[in-house]
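Reopening this ticket.

The earlier resolution said the output was attached, but the attachment link was broken on my side. Pasting everything inline this time so it's all in one place.
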Amino acid sequence: TQITTHAGGTIDADVSGQTLYIDPNANDLVNQGIMQASGGGILRLQGATYTNTGGTIQALDGSSVQLEAARIVGGTVSTDGSGVMETVSWGALQDLAITSTVRVNNGDDLYLEGTINNAGTIAVNATSASTDLRIEGEVTLTGGGEIVLNSGAARLFDENDPMEGRLINEGNTLGGNGQLGAGRLIEVVSN
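Inline output:
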């Protein structure tokens, strides 16, 4: 059975310090409404594709949305105040809008696919282990946001064949301290 949240519907992890796990297993989830963490709660998206076209996934002040082997396709991901959208192992973002900060935690991976309208920040926060932002095929970054690599172990590179990865950067800033390519050639086109 597939889980679907229709327009006007809300899934809310709203208990402070507690986690609401969403695990559709082999079935994917469709969100056309709002999925959020609020009031200090944690919303953990696990092991599935979350089709978010027309929907919003958000972490409100003091709360966290965590991606654990989860792929979000379409719609908007956002945070408010001290809310955080972050990886727990790996996550993937495809053809969506980012209006806040997405954090790739130490030792984790975040995959980008399709067109990412990044009006926020993708922060690759390596401290002691390789922490990767991986490009799947051709990825277009729009929106005027930034990608920040924060240490020598923070890497941005092609996931597959070293000659297939292409990042088309239309107005984002790529910076910080880390590795572009990481020994795996990636073509970066800035417009």
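Reporter confirms the inline version is readable. The mean pLDDT is 91. The CA atoms of residues 106 and 126 lie 4 Å apart.
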